[in-house]
Amino acid sequence: MRPRHRGDNLGLLLLFCQIFQVGFNNVPPATLVTLALNIYLFLFPLKNLMQVCISVQNVYFHKDWSRILLAQFHHADDWHLYFNMASFLWKGLRLEGRLGSMWFAYLLGVFSLLTGVVYILLEMALSELLNDASYNSHCAVGFSGELQFKFLTYFCVIATWIHFLVDDITHLKGHIQISFFAISRSVSRLPTNLSIFHL
């Protein structure tokens, strides 16, 4: 593991400010451990992003199953980390207080795995449905409290536009691609021409 050296890391500084504002003693344990793990892996990533990002190509075809979990805890840049973790901090404060630390930690673990699996299944379905192999190479990283809602939105988009399949496949393809990319926070082009979704 090599430390990450990127610019001024203003997003990371703001995240620490938010945690200090809340107070370490006020952050429930499962939320605090998850925040610490994400920050640590941002500063000292296990591998570079192209080796941990999740895609159909890497997970299903190349059988690199570890990416299902690793992608959840790596972030593309300090702002990606900040927005995901700031959101998670406030959700964790509320939800862990209501559910209890053990149940909250269990749900985090289950949803971290399920999010990766659902992402792969959706990308495979879009690739088949739209006859567009580029969905197999979309690579995603990030731990987001809104991920489950994004995937529900993907399902809704597919269900809403599926009736256009019979009438006009080009029409369907255009609308699903627009919706799919609009839901994602941002798309970065990588040197290998793969996209990393900031989730």
Automatic annotation (TrEMBL):
Pfam families: Rhomboid. The keyword Protein biosynthesis does not apply. It is found in: Membrane. The keyword ATP-binding does not apply. It is a multi-pass membrane protein. GO terms for molecular function: serine-type endopeptidase activity. InterPro entries: Peptidase_S54_rhomboid_dom, Rhomboid-like_sf. One of its GO terms (cellular component) is membrane. Residues 63-164 form the Peptidase S54 rhomboid domain. Its main location: membrane. The chain crosses the membrane at residues 103-127, 147-166. Keywords: Membrane, Transmembrane, Transmembrane helix. PANTHER family: RHOMBOID-RELATED PROTEIN, RHOMBOID-RELATED PROTEIN 4. This is Rhomboid domain containing 1.
